[in-house]
Amino acid sequence: xxxxxxxxxxxxxxxxxxxxxxxxxxxxxxxxxxxxxxxxxxxxxxxxxxxxxxxxxxxxxxxxxxxxxxxxxxxxxxxxxxxxxxxxxxxxxxxxxxxxxxxxxxxxxxxxxxxxxxxxxxx
Length: 123
Description:
The protein is mainly β. 0% of the residues lie in helices and 48% in strands. The chain contains no helices and eleven strands. Strands 2, 4, 5, 6, 9, 10 and 11 form a seven-stranded mixed beta sheet that branches. A hairpin with a 6-residue loop joins strand 4 and strand 5. The radius of gyration is 13 Å and the shape is globular. It starts with a strand and ends with a strand.
């Protein structure tokens, strides 16, 4: 599975960005998809995820109420809508996918990774 992440950029605090994770040749709805982020000097963390099958969603506590993850199965794309962005959201964002249905989205091993897209939020 090849993933293509896009949509990063530079935005002022309080602004919005929408990230896209697209794949081709596969039915993306059969994959659990996560958006990870890694800030300089920090470990990679799962920001949000959407489960295969029932589209159950997970959000890291720091992004709840500001980020929304959603699928467009017709376009084989998963989006991460990021609103009310803060400087601490600055990171490289990666999308990743797993064919597994899991009750723990943070604990899931994601087998397929896209390239990162940089998100920079200025204060």
